[in-house]
Amino acid sequence: MKNILIIGCGLLGSSLLRRISKKKIAKKIFIYEKSKSNIAKIKKLKLPGIIVKSLKDGVLNSDLIIFCTPMSEYKKLIIKINNFISSKTLITDIGSSKIETSKIIKKFLKKGIHWIQSHPITGSEVSGPEHGKDNIFDNKWCIIIKEKNTTKSNLNILSKFWKKVGSKVVIMTVEKHDKIFSITSHLPHLIAYNLVKSAQDFEKKQSYPLMKFSAGGLRDFSRIAASNEIMWRDIFFNNKNNISKAIDLFIKNLNEFKKDINARNNKSILKKLIKTKKVRSKIIRLKQDIDKPDFGRN
Amino acid sequence: MKNILIIGCGLLGSSLLRRISKKKIAKKIFIYEKSKSNIAKIKKLKLPGIIVKSLKDGVLNSDLIIFCTPMSEYKKLIIKINNFISSKTLITDIGSSKIETSKIIKKFLKKGIHWIQSHPITGSEVSGPEHGKDNIFDNKWCIIIKEKNTTKSNLNILSKFWKKVGSKVVIMTVEKHDKIFSITSHLPHLIAYNLVKSAQDFEKKQSYPLMKFSAGGLRDFSRIAASNEIMWRDIFFNNKNNISKAIDLFIKNLNEFKKDINARNNKSILKKLIKTKKVRSKIIRLKQDIDKPDFGRN
To answer: What ipTM score was computed for the predicted complex, to two decimals?
Structure first.
Protein backbone atom coordinates (compact mmCIF):
# COMPACT_ATOMS: atom_id res chain seq x y z
CA MET A 1 0.00 0.00 0.00
CA LYS A 2 1.46 3.33 -1.01
CA ASN A 3 -0.98 6.09 -0.15
CA ILE A 4 -4.30 6.05 1.68
CA LEU A 5 -7.08 8.65 1.69
CA ILE A 6 -9.39 8.80 4.69
CA ILE A 7 -12.66 10.59 3.93
CA GLY A 8 -14.24 11.78 7.18
CA CYS A 9 -11.97 11.98 10.18
CA GLY A 10 -14.19 11.38 13.21
CA LEU A 11 -13.81 8.69 15.84
CA LEU A 12 -13.08 5.79 13.48
CA GLY A 13 -11.41 7.80 10.71
CA SER A 14 -8.96 9.30 13.19
CA SER A 15 -8.40 5.89 14.82
CA LEU A 16 -7.45 4.47 11.43
CA LEU A 17 -5.24 7.51 10.82
CA ARG A 18 -3.41 6.97 14.10
CA ARG A 19 -2.99 3.24 13.47
CA ILE A 20 -1.88 3.51 9.83
CA SER A 21 0.68 6.10 10.84
CA LYS A 22 1.95 4.22 13.90
CA LYS A 23 2.36 0.92 12.04
CA LYS A 24 3.63 2.66 8.87
CA ILE A 25 0.98 0.89 6.78
CA ALA A 26 1.06 3.63 4.09
CA LYS A 27 3.65 6.01 2.73
CA LYS A 28 1.33 8.98 2.80
CA ILE A 29 -2.01 9.41 4.50
CA PHE A 30 -4.41 12.01 3.15
CA ILE A 31 -7.40 13.29 5.09
CA TYR A 32 -10.48 14.82 3.54
CA GLU A 33 -12.72 16.35 6.17
CA LYS A 34 -15.50 18.86 5.57
CA SER A 35 -16.10 19.86 9.19
CA LYS A 36 -14.08 22.94 10.11
CA SER A 37 -14.36 22.04 13.78
CA ASN A 38 -12.88 18.57 13.13
CA ILE A 39 -10.05 20.08 11.06
CA ALA A 40 -9.23 22.44 13.93
CA LYS A 41 -9.18 19.49 16.35
CA ILE A 42 -6.93 17.42 14.04
CA LYS A 43 -4.49 20.31 13.81
CA LYS A 44 -4.56 21.01 17.53
CA LEU A 45 -3.96 17.34 18.35
CA LYS A 46 -1.14 17.31 15.77
CA LEU A 47 -2.51 14.11 14.28
CA PRO A 48 -0.41 12.59 11.46
CA GLY A 49 -1.45 12.83 7.80
CA ILE A 50 -1.95 15.53 5.20
CA ILE A 51 -5.23 17.41 5.19
CA VAL A 52 -6.30 17.91 1.57
CA LYS A 53 -8.58 20.80 0.68
CA SER A 54 -9.76 19.28 -2.59
CA LEU A 55 -11.13 15.79 -2.78
CA LYS A 56 -9.46 15.47 -6.20
CA ASP A 57 -5.95 15.84 -4.76
CA GLY A 58 -6.62 13.07 -2.27
CA VAL A 59 -8.26 10.69 -4.72
CA LEU A 60 -5.68 11.09 -7.52
CA ASN A 61 -2.79 10.32 -5.20
CA SER A 62 -4.22 7.36 -3.28
CA ASP A 63 -4.21 3.59 -3.79
CA LEU A 64 -6.83 3.00 -1.13
CA ILE A 65 -9.75 5.26 -0.20
CA ILE A 66 -11.61 4.64 3.06
CA PHE A 67 -15.04 6.23 3.53
CA CYS A 68 -15.42 7.02 7.25
CA THR A 69 -18.33 9.47 6.96
CA PRO A 70 -21.95 8.73 7.90
CA MET A 71 -23.43 6.46 5.22
CA SER A 72 -25.84 9.18 4.11
CA GLU A 73 -22.85 11.11 2.71
CA TYR A 74 -21.69 8.33 0.35
CA LYS A 75 -23.87 9.15 -2.67
CA LYS A 76 -22.78 12.79 -2.85
CA LEU A 77 -19.12 11.84 -2.48
CA ILE A 78 -19.34 9.04 -5.07
CA ILE A 79 -20.74 11.45 -7.66
CA LYS A 80 -17.83 13.82 -6.95
CA ILE A 81 -15.03 11.28 -7.10
CA ASN A 82 -16.40 9.69 -10.29
CA ASN A 83 -14.84 12.66 -12.11
CA PHE A 84 -11.26 11.76 -11.33
CA ILE A 85 -10.96 8.27 -9.83
CA SER A 86 -8.89 5.61 -11.63
CA SER A 87 -9.61 1.89 -11.71
CA LYS A 88 -6.29 1.26 -9.94
CA THR A 89 -7.66 2.78 -6.76
CA LEU A 90 -9.50 0.51 -4.37
CA ILE A 91 -12.33 1.95 -2.27
CA THR A 92 -13.69 0.68 1.01
CA ASP A 93 -15.85 2.04 3.83
CA ILE A 94 -16.59 1.25 7.45
CA GLY A 95 -20.40 1.53 7.46
CA SER A 96 -22.44 -0.63 9.83
CA SER A 97 -25.02 -1.80 7.29
CA LYS A 98 -24.33 -3.04 3.78
CA ILE A 99 -27.31 -3.81 1.49
CA GLU A 100 -28.28 -0.19 0.92
CA THR A 101 -24.67 0.93 0.39
CA SER A 102 -24.24 -1.88 -2.12
CA LYS A 103 -27.23 -0.53 -4.07
CA ILE A 104 -25.87 3.03 -4.01
CA ILE A 105 -22.44 1.87 -5.19
CA LYS A 106 -23.98 -0.16 -8.03
CA LYS A 107 -26.19 2.73 -9.06
CA PHE A 108 -23.81 5.67 -8.78
CA LEU A 109 -20.16 4.57 -8.81
CA LYS A 110 -18.45 4.78 -12.21
CA LYS A 111 -18.20 1.37 -13.90
CA GLY A 112 -14.84 -0.38 -13.53
CA ILE A 113 -14.11 1.11 -10.11
CA HIS A 114 -13.65 -1.37 -7.26
CA TRP A 115 -15.33 -0.83 -3.94
CA ILE A 116 -15.26 -3.61 -1.35
CA GLN A 117 -17.22 -2.82 1.78
CA SER A 118 -15.75 -3.33 5.27
CA HIS A 119 -17.27 -3.23 8.73
CA PRO A 120 -14.91 -3.19 11.68
CA ILE A 121 -16.94 -4.16 14.79
CA THR A 122 -15.87 -1.36 17.09
CA GLY A 123 -17.01 2.10 18.05
CA SER A 124 -17.96 4.30 20.95
CA GLU A 125 -20.77 6.46 22.21
CA VAL A 126 -18.40 9.41 21.87
CA SER A 127 -17.70 11.00 18.49
CA GLY A 128 -15.00 13.14 16.95
CA PRO A 129 -11.26 12.88 16.15
CA GLU A 130 -10.26 13.70 19.73
CA HIS A 131 -11.66 10.34 20.91
CA GLY A 132 -9.89 8.15 18.33
CA LYS A 133 -7.34 5.55 19.49
CA ASP A 134 -4.81 3.57 17.50
CA ASN A 135 -5.75 0.29 19.18
CA ILE A 136 -9.54 0.19 18.89
CA PHE A 137 -9.38 -2.39 16.07
CA ASP A 138 -7.13 -4.79 17.96
CA ASN A 139 -8.55 -8.32 17.96
CA LYS A 140 -11.94 -7.04 16.80
CA TRP A 141 -13.76 -8.65 13.92
CA CYS A 142 -13.71 -6.82 10.63
CA ILE A 143 -16.32 -8.04 8.16
CA ILE A 144 -15.32 -7.77 4.51
CA ILE A 145 -18.15 -7.99 2.00
CA LYS A 146 -17.79 -10.29 -0.98
CA GLU A 147 -20.05 -9.61 -3.94
CA LYS A 148 -20.28 -11.14 -7.41
CA ASN A 149 -17.79 -8.71 -8.93
CA THR A 150 -15.30 -8.78 -6.05
CA THR A 151 -11.89 -9.87 -7.30
CA LYS A 152 -9.67 -12.20 -5.29
CA SER A 153 -6.69 -9.87 -5.56
CA ASN A 154 -8.60 -6.88 -4.15
CA LEU A 155 -10.04 -9.07 -1.39
CA ASN A 156 -6.47 -10.05 -0.49
CA ILE A 157 -5.27 -6.46 -0.48
CA LEU A 158 -8.11 -5.41 1.82
CA SER A 159 -7.75 -8.43 4.13
CA LYS A 160 -4.06 -7.72 4.54
CA PHE A 161 -4.83 -4.08 5.27
CA TRP A 162 -7.32 -4.86 8.07
CA LYS A 163 -5.02 -7.46 9.58
CA LYS A 164 -2.26 -4.85 9.72
CA VAL A 165 -4.75 -2.54 11.41
CA GLY A 166 -5.18 -5.22 14.10
CA SER A 167 -8.52 -6.77 13.13
CA LYS A 168 -9.52 -10.40 12.65
CA VAL A 169 -11.02 -10.66 9.16
CA VAL A 170 -14.14 -12.57 8.17
CA ILE A 171 -15.76 -12.55 4.71
CA MET A 172 -19.52 -12.39 4.22
CA THR A 173 -22.29 -11.49 1.77
CA VAL A 174 -24.27 -8.25 2.20
CA GLU A 175 -27.44 -10.21 3.05
CA LYS A 176 -25.83 -12.30 5.76
CA HIS A 177 -24.06 -9.26 7.21
CA ASP A 178 -27.19 -7.16 7.47
CA LYS A 179 -29.19 -10.00 8.98
CA ILE A 180 -26.61 -10.88 11.63
CA PHE A 181 -25.97 -7.29 12.69
CA SER A 182 -29.66 -6.40 12.76
CA ILE A 183 -29.81 -8.76 15.75
CA THR A 184 -26.40 -8.44 17.40
CA SER A 185 -26.01 -4.69 17.10
CA HIS A 186 -28.81 -2.69 15.45
CA LEU A 187 -31.69 -4.04 17.54
CA PRO A 188 -29.73 -3.74 20.84
CA HIS A 189 -29.01 -0.09 20.06
CA LEU A 190 -32.61 0.64 19.07
CA ILE A 191 -33.79 -1.07 22.26
CA ALA A 192 -31.44 1.09 24.32
CA TYR A 193 -32.74 4.26 22.67
CA ASN A 194 -36.30 3.04 23.19
CA LEU A 195 -35.75 2.20 26.85
CA VAL A 196 -34.35 5.63 27.57
CA LYS A 197 -37.22 7.22 25.64
CA SER A 198 -39.70 5.21 27.73
CA ALA A 199 -37.96 6.26 30.95
CA GLN A 200 -38.19 9.89 29.84
CA ASP A 201 -41.89 9.53 29.08
CA PHE A 202 -42.46 7.90 32.45
CA GLU A 203 -40.48 10.55 34.31
CA LYS A 204 -42.43 13.31 32.60
CA LYS A 205 -45.75 11.71 33.51
CA GLN A 206 -44.91 10.77 37.09
CA SER A 207 -42.40 13.52 37.96
CA TYR A 208 -40.36 10.98 39.92
CA PRO A 209 -36.58 11.39 40.07
CA LEU A 210 -35.79 8.34 37.98
CA MET A 211 -32.26 9.01 36.84
CA LYS A 212 -30.95 9.23 40.39
CA PHE A 213 -31.77 5.53 40.67
CA SER A 214 -30.53 4.50 37.26
CA ALA A 215 -27.67 2.30 38.49
CA GLY A 216 -29.77 -0.89 38.40
CA GLY A 217 -29.80 -1.12 34.61
CA LEU A 218 -31.07 2.05 32.94
CA ARG A 219 -27.76 3.90 33.34
CA ASP A 220 -25.90 1.53 31.06
CA PHE A 221 -28.57 1.64 28.39
CA SER A 222 -28.28 5.42 28.50
CA ARG A 223 -24.63 5.10 27.51
CA ILE A 224 -25.57 3.38 24.25
CA ALA A 225 -28.43 5.79 23.71
CA ALA A 226 -25.86 8.60 23.70
CA SER A 227 -24.31 7.31 20.46
CA ASN A 228 -24.09 9.51 17.38
CA GLU A 229 -27.58 10.18 16.05
CA ILE A 230 -26.65 10.67 12.39
CA MET A 231 -24.73 7.40 12.27
CA TRP A 232 -27.59 5.49 13.91
CA ARG A 233 -30.32 7.10 11.84
CA ASP A 234 -28.40 5.99 8.74
CA ILE A 235 -28.07 2.42 10.07
CA PHE A 236 -31.76 2.20 11.06
CA PHE A 237 -32.89 3.55 7.66
CA ASN A 238 -30.41 1.51 5.59
CA ASN A 239 -31.18 -1.80 7.28
CA LYS A 240 -34.88 -1.13 7.79
CA ASN A 241 -36.22 -4.42 6.45
CA ASN A 242 -34.11 -6.59 8.74
CA ILE A 243 -34.55 -4.25 11.71
CA SER A 244 -38.28 -4.19 11.18
CA LYS A 245 -38.39 -7.99 11.30
CA ALA A 246 -36.17 -7.98 14.39
CA ILE A 247 -38.54 -5.52 16.10
CA ASP A 248 -41.53 -7.78 15.31
CA LEU A 249 -39.77 -10.82 16.79
CA PHE A 250 -38.75 -8.78 19.84
CA ILE A 251 -42.29 -7.50 20.46
CA LYS A 252 -43.77 -10.97 19.98
CA ASN A 253 -41.40 -12.36 22.62
CA LEU A 254 -41.97 -9.42 24.97
CA ASN A 255 -45.73 -9.94 24.80
CA GLU A 256 -45.20 -13.60 25.69
CA PHE A 257 -43.07 -12.56 28.67
CA LYS A 258 -45.85 -10.18 29.71
CA LYS A 259 -48.41 -12.95 29.47
CA ASP A 260 -46.24 -15.24 31.60
CA ILE A 261 -45.73 -12.51 34.19
CA ASN A 262 -49.41 -11.60 34.41
CA ALA A 263 -50.43 -15.25 34.65
CA ARG A 264 -47.58 -15.99 37.11
CA ASN A 265 -46.65 -18.87 34.80
CA ASN A 266 -43.78 -20.23 36.83
CA LYS A 267 -42.79 -23.08 34.52
CA SER A 268 -42.77 -21.03 31.34
CA ILE A 269 -40.86 -18.05 32.76
CA LEU A 270 -38.20 -20.15 34.50
CA LYS A 271 -37.64 -22.11 31.28
CA LYS A 272 -36.98 -18.83 29.44
CA LEU A 273 -34.81 -17.28 32.13
CA ILE A 274 -32.68 -20.43 32.39
CA LYS A 275 -32.36 -20.82 28.62
CA THR A 276 -31.06 -17.28 28.08
CA LYS A 277 -28.25 -18.02 30.54
CA LYS A 278 -26.81 -20.48 28.06
CA VAL A 279 -26.08 -17.71 25.59
CA ARG A 280 -23.69 -16.17 28.03
CA SER A 281 -21.74 -19.42 28.49
CA LYS A 282 -21.56 -19.64 24.70
CA ILE A 283 -20.25 -16.08 24.40
CA ILE A 284 -17.63 -16.78 27.06
CA ARG A 285 -16.68 -20.00 25.26
CA LEU A 286 -16.30 -18.06 22.00
CA LYS A 287 -13.97 -15.66 23.84
CA GLN A 288 -16.25 -12.77 23.00
CA ASP A 289 -16.60 -11.72 26.60
CA ILE A 290 -14.59 -9.05 28.36
CA ASP A 291 -14.05 -8.08 32.01
CA LYS A 292 -16.71 -5.44 31.97
CA PRO A 293 -19.50 -4.81 29.49
CA ASP A 294 -18.69 -2.04 27.05
CA PHE A 295 -21.18 -2.44 24.21
CA GLY A 296 -18.41 -2.85 21.68
CA ARG A 297 -16.69 0.26 22.93
CA ASN A 298 -13.13 0.63 24.10
CA MET B 1 -26.80 -3.15 67.38
CA LYS B 2 -25.92 -6.25 69.36
CA ASN B 3 -26.59 -9.33 67.24
CA ILE B 4 -27.69 -9.74 63.63
CA LEU B 5 -29.23 -12.75 61.91
CA ILE B 6 -28.77 -13.10 58.15
CA ILE B 7 -31.31 -15.45 56.59
CA GLY B 8 -30.00 -16.68 53.24
CA CYS B 9 -26.29 -16.29 52.64
CA GLY B 10 -25.89 -15.91 48.88
CA LEU B 11 -24.26 -13.02 47.04
CA LEU B 12 -25.84 -10.19 49.05
CA GLY B 13 -26.22 -12.06 52.35
CA SER B 14 -22.55 -12.97 52.34
CA SER B 15 -21.59 -9.43 51.30
CA LEU B 16 -23.49 -8.09 54.32
CA LEU B 17 -21.84 -10.73 56.48
CA ARG B 18 -18.38 -9.70 55.33
CA ARG B 19 -19.13 -6.00 55.79
CA ILE B 20 -20.81 -6.31 59.23
CA SER B 21 -17.88 -8.36 60.45
CA LYS B 22 -15.20 -6.11 58.96
CA LYS B 23 -16.72 -2.92 60.36
CA LYS B 24 -17.71 -4.61 63.65
CA ILE B 25 -21.32 -3.44 63.22
CA ALA B 26 -22.66 -6.31 65.41
CA LYS B 27 -21.37 -8.28 68.37
CA LYS B 28 -22.47 -11.59 66.92
CA ILE B 29 -23.59 -12.48 63.40
CA PHE B 30 -25.80 -15.53 62.93
CA ILE B 31 -26.35 -17.14 59.54
CA TYR B 32 -29.35 -19.28 58.66
CA GLU B 33 -28.88 -20.98 55.32
CA LYS B 34 -30.84 -23.95 54.03
CA SER B 35 -28.61 -24.80 51.05
CA LYS B 36 -26.03 -27.43 51.99
CA SER B 37 -23.85 -26.36 49.09
CA ASN B 38 -23.84 -22.75 50.33
CA ILE B 39 -23.00 -23.88 53.89
CA ALA B 40 -20.06 -25.90 52.55
CA LYS B 41 -18.86 -22.84 50.61
CA ILE B 42 -19.19 -20.56 53.67
CA LYS B 43 -17.14 -23.00 55.74
CA LYS B 44 -14.51 -23.48 53.05
CA LEU B 45 -14.15 -19.72 52.61
CA LYS B 46 -13.93 -19.37 56.42
CA LEU B 47 -16.45 -16.55 56.31
CA PRO B 48 -17.16 -14.89 59.68
CA GLY B 49 -20.38 -15.53 61.64
CA ILE B 50 -22.06 -18.43 63.38
CA ILE B 51 -24.08 -20.82 61.25
CA VAL B 52 -27.24 -21.75 63.19
CA LYS B 53 -28.99 -25.00 62.47
CA SER B 54 -32.31 -23.93 63.91
CA LEU B 55 -34.00 -20.73 62.88
CA LYS B 56 -35.22 -20.35 66.47
CA ASP B 57 -31.67 -20.04 67.86
CA GLY B 58 -30.88 -17.29 65.42
CA VAL B 59 -34.13 -15.37 65.88
CA LEU B 60 -34.17 -15.51 69.69
CA ASN B 61 -30.64 -14.12 69.97
CA SER B 62 -30.83 -11.32 67.39
CA ASP B 63 -31.80 -7.64 67.48
CA LEU B 64 -31.93 -7.35 63.71
CA ILE B 65 -32.96 -10.00 61.21
CA ILE B 66 -32.15 -9.48 57.52
CA PHE B 67 -33.98 -11.59 54.94
CA CYS B 68 -31.57 -12.19 52.05
CA THR B 69 -33.43 -15.11 50.42
CA PRO B 70 -35.45 -14.94 47.20
CA MET B 71 -38.73 -13.12 47.97
CA SER B 72 -40.74 -16.28 47.29
CA GLU B 73 -39.26 -17.75 50.51
CA TYR B 74 -40.53 -14.99 52.81
CA LYS B 75 -44.01 -16.34 53.55
CA LYS B 76 -42.76 -19.76 54.69
CA LEU B 77 -40.08 -18.18 56.87
CA ILE B 78 -42.49 -15.63 58.40
CA ILE B 79 -44.85 -18.41 59.48
CA LYS B 80 -41.92 -20.19 61.13
CA ILE B 81 -40.46 -17.22 62.99
CA ASN B 82 -43.90 -16.10 64.24
CA ASN B 83 -43.55 -18.89 66.82
CA PHE B 84 -40.63 -17.35 68.67
CA ILE B 85 -39.96 -13.77 67.56
CA SER B 86 -40.16 -10.91 70.09
CA SER B 87 -41.34 -7.38 69.39
CA LYS B 88 -37.88 -6.09 70.35
CA THR B 89 -36.41 -7.63 67.21
CA LEU B 90 -36.46 -5.54 64.05
CA ILE B 91 -36.77 -7.32 60.71
CA THR B 92 -35.69 -6.07 57.30
CA ASP B 93 -35.04 -7.58 53.86
CA ILE B 94 -33.20 -6.70 50.69
CA GLY B 95 -35.85 -7.62 48.09
CA SER B 96 -36.01 -5.69 44.82
CA SER B 97 -39.78 -5.13 44.79
CA LYS B 98 -41.92 -4.03 47.72
CA ILE B 99 -45.72 -3.91 47.28
CA GLU B 100 -46.21 -7.68 47.28
CA THR B 101 -43.83 -8.20 50.21
CA SER B 102 -45.71 -5.53 52.14
CA LYS B 103 -48.95 -7.49 51.57
CA ILE B 104 -47.35 -10.75 52.73
CA ILE B 105 -45.93 -9.12 55.85
CA LYS B 106 -49.31 -7.56 56.72
CA LYS B 107 -51.11 -10.83 56.15
CA PHE B 108 -48.75 -13.31 57.78
CA LEU B 109 -46.37 -11.61 60.24
CA LYS B 110 -47.48 -11.75 63.89
CA LYS B 111 -49.02 -8.46 65.05
CA GLY B 112 -46.67 -6.16 66.94
CA ILE B 113 -43.56 -7.28 65.10
CA HIS B 114 -41.69 -4.58 63.18
CA TRP B 115 -40.50 -5.17 59.64
CA ILE B 116 -39.12 -2.27 57.63
CA GLN B 117 -38.22 -3.16 54.07
CA SER B 118 -34.88 -2.19 52.53
CA HIS B 119 -33.57 -2.33 48.98
CA PRO B 120 -29.85 -1.79 48.46
CA ILE B 121 -29.31 -0.97 44.76
CA THR B 122 -26.51 -3.39 44.03
CA GLY B 123 -26.08 -6.95 42.78
CA SER B 124 -24.41 -9.07 40.17
CA GLU B 125 -25.19 -11.59 37.47
CA VAL B 126 -23.25 -14.12 39.55
CA SER B 127 -24.82 -15.79 42.61
CA GLY B 128 -23.58 -17.54 45.72
CA PRO B 129 -21.55 -16.70 48.85
CA GLU B 130 -18.24 -17.11 47.01
CA HIS B 131 -18.99 -13.97 44.97
CA GLY B 132 -19.86 -11.67 47.89
CA LYS B 133 -17.69 -8.62 48.62
CA ASP B 134 -17.60 -6.36 51.66
CA ASN B 135 -17.63 -3.20 49.57
CA ILE B 136 -20.54 -3.75 47.18
CA PHE B 137 -22.79 -1.37 49.15
CA ASP B 138 -20.28 1.49 49.16
CA ASN B 139 -21.88 4.72 47.95
CA LYS B 140 -24.86 2.83 46.53
CA TRP B 141 -28.40 3.93 47.26
CA CYS B 142 -30.32 1.92 49.80
CA ILE B 143 -34.06 2.54 49.70
CA ILE B 144 -35.81 2.19 53.06
CA ILE B 145 -39.58 1.79 52.90
CA LYS B 146 -41.76 3.91 55.16
CA GLU B 147 -45.28 2.68 55.79
CA LYS B 148 -48.07 3.91 58.05
CA ASN B 149 -46.97 1.84 61.02
CA THR B 150 -43.23 2.52 60.63
CA THR B 151 -41.86 4.10 63.81
CA LYS B 152 -39.31 6.87 63.72
CA SER B 153 -36.98 5.07 66.12
CA ASN B 154 -36.88 1.90 64.00
CA LEU B 155 -36.37 3.98 60.87
CA ASN B 156 -33.39 5.61 62.60
CA ILE B 157 -31.94 2.28 63.65
CA LEU B 158 -32.19 0.91 60.12
CA SER B 159 -30.85 4.10 58.48
CA LYS B 160 -27.82 4.04 60.77
CA PHE B 161 -27.28 0.37 59.96
CA TRP B 162 -27.25 0.90 56.18
CA LYS B 163 -25.02 3.94 56.49
CA LYS B 164 -22.52 1.85 58.46
CA VAL B 165 -22.75 -0.74 55.69
CA GLY B 166 -21.63 1.99 53.28
CA SER B 167 -24.93 2.91 51.57
CA LYS B 168 -26.56 6.28 50.97
CA VAL B 169 -30.06 6.06 52.43
CA VAL B 170 -33.28 7.36 50.88
CA ILE B 171 -36.78 6.86 52.28
CA MET B 172 -39.76 6.03 50.06
CA THR B 173 -43.26 4.51 49.99
CA VAL B 174 -43.81 1.02 48.55
CA GLU B 175 -45.79 2.46 45.63
CA LYS B 176 -43.14 4.96 44.63
CA HIS B 177 -40.40 2.36 45.01
CA ASP B 178 -42.07 -0.21 42.80
CA LYS B 179 -42.93 2.35 40.14
CA ILE B 180 -39.42 3.81 39.95
CA PHE B 181 -37.64 0.47 39.86
CA SER B 182 -40.05 -1.02 37.34
CA ILE B 183 -38.52 1.47 34.91
CA THR B 184 -34.91 1.85 36.07
CA SER B 185 -34.21 -1.81 36.82
CA HIS B 186 -36.99 -4.36 36.23
CA LEU B 187 -37.83 -3.36 32.65
CA PRO B 188 -34.13 -3.12 31.62
CA HIS B 189 -33.56 -6.64 32.93
CA LEU B 190 -36.65 -8.02 31.22
CA ILE B 191 -35.59 -6.32 27.98
CA ALA B 192 -32.16 -7.93 28.25
CA TYR B 193 -33.67 -11.37 28.76
CA ASN B 194 -36.04 -10.72 25.88
CA LEU B 195 -33.29 -9.55 23.53
CA VAL B 196 -31.22 -12.65 24.21
CA LYS B 197 -34.32 -14.82 23.74
CA SER B 198 -34.98 -13.11 20.38
CA ALA B 199 -31.37 -13.64 19.30
CA GLN B 200 -31.68 -17.33 20.20
CA ASP B 201 -34.88 -17.65 18.18
CA PHE B 202 -33.24 -15.89 15.24
CA GLU B 203 -30.13 -18.06 15.43
CA LYS B 204 -32.22 -21.21 15.51
CA LYS B 205 -34.21 -20.11 12.48
CA GLN B 206 -31.31 -18.81 10.38
CA SER B 207 -28.50 -21.03 11.64
CA TYR B 208 -26.13 -18.08 11.47
CA PRO B 209 -23.26 -17.86 13.97
CA LEU B 210 -24.64 -14.86 15.84
CA MET B 211 -22.81 -15.01 19.12
CA LYS B 212 -19.40 -14.78 17.48
CA PHE B 213 -20.42 -11.25 16.47
CA SER B 214 -22.07 -10.26 19.71
CA ALA B 215 -19.55 -7.54 20.65
CA GLY B 216 -21.62 -4.77 19.08
CA GLY B 217 -24.28 -4.79 21.80
CA LEU B 218 -25.79 -8.23 22.32
CA ARG B 219 -22.88 -9.47 24.43
CA ASP B 220 -23.53 -6.98 27.19
CA PHE B 221 -27.24 -7.71 27.32
CA SER B 222 -26.32 -11.38 27.69
CA ARG B 223 -24.48 -10.52 30.89
CA ILE B 224 -27.68 -9.22 32.50
CA ALA B 225 -29.66 -12.09 31.08
CA ALA B 226 -27.38 -14.43 33.03
CA SER B 227 -28.73 -13.11 36.36
CA ASN B 228 -30.32 -15.47 38.90
CA GLU B 229 -33.60 -16.78 37.50
CA ILE B 230 -35.38 -17.34 40.84
CA MET B 231 -34.64 -13.81 42.01
CA TRP B 232 -35.84 -12.30 38.75
CA ARG B 233 -38.94 -14.49 38.47
CA ASP B 234 -39.88 -13.25 41.95
CA ILE B 235 -39.33 -9.62 40.97
CA PHE B 236 -41.29 -9.95 37.71
CA PHE B 237 -44.20 -11.67 39.49
CA ASN B 238 -44.22 -9.39 42.55
CA ASN B 239 -44.14 -6.16 40.57
CA LYS B 240 -46.29 -7.39 37.70
CA ASN B 241 -48.70 -4.48 37.53
CA ASN B 242 -46.01 -1.84 37.19
CA ILE B 243 -43.88 -4.01 34.90
CA SER B 244 -46.89 -4.74 32.72
CA LYS B 245 -47.51 -1.00 32.30
CA ALA B 246 -43.82 -0.44 31.59
CA ILE B 247 -43.91 -3.14 28.89
CA ASP B 248 -46.93 -1.45 27.26
CA LEU B 249 -45.18 1.92 27.19
CA PHE B 250 -42.03 0.29 25.83
CA ILE B 251 -43.90 -1.52 23.03
CA LYS B 252 -45.84 1.61 22.12
CA ASN B 253 -42.59 3.55 21.75
CA LEU B 254 -40.89 0.73 19.85
CA ASN B 255 -43.76 0.60 17.36
CA GLU B 256 -43.38 4.33 16.83
CA PHE B 257 -39.66 3.87 16.20
CA LYS B 258 -40.52 1.12 13.69
CA LYS B 259 -42.96 3.41 11.94
CA ASP B 260 -40.34 6.18 11.73
CA ILE B 261 -37.75 3.75 10.40
CA ASN B 262 -40.03 2.25 7.76
CA ALA B 263 -41.20 5.69 6.64
CA ARG B 264 -37.62 7.05 6.78
CA ASN B 265 -39.02 9.87 8.90
CA ASN B 266 -35.82 11.84 9.31
CA LYS B 267 -37.20 14.65 11.46
CA SER B 268 -39.01 12.43 13.92
CA ILE B 269 -36.20 9.92 14.40
CA LEU B 270 -33.47 12.54 14.83
CA LYS B 271 -35.61 14.32 17.42
CA LYS B 272 -35.85 11.11 19.43
CA LEU B 273 -32.20 10.11 19.08
CA ILE B 274 -31.06 13.59 20.13
CA LYS B 275 -33.47 13.76 23.06
CA THR B 276 -32.33 10.47 24.57
CA LYS B 277 -28.78 11.82 24.66
CA LYS B 278 -29.86 14.32 27.28
CA VAL B 279 -30.58 11.54 29.75
CA ARG B 280 -26.96 10.58 29.72
CA SER B 281 -25.81 14.13 30.52
CA LYS B 282 -28.31 14.13 33.36
CA ILE B 283 -27.01 10.83 34.73
CA ILE B 284 -23.45 12.13 34.56
CA ARG B 285 -24.54 15.34 36.30
CA LEU B 286 -26.18 13.27 39.04
CA LYS B 287 -22.87 11.43 39.47
CA GLN B 288 -24.59 8.14 38.71
CA ASP B 289 -22.19 7.30 35.93
CA ILE B 290 -19.14 5.11 36.22
CA ASP B 291 -16.09 4.47 34.03
CA LYS B 292 -17.55 1.41 32.41
CA PRO B 293 -21.13 0.17 32.31
CA ASP B 294 -21.78 -2.57 34.85
CA PHE B 295 -25.59 -2.78 35.16
CA GLY B 296 -25.41 -2.08 38.85
CA ARG B 297 -22.82 -4.77 39.37
CA ASN B 298 -19.45 -4.47 41.01
So the answer is: 0.92
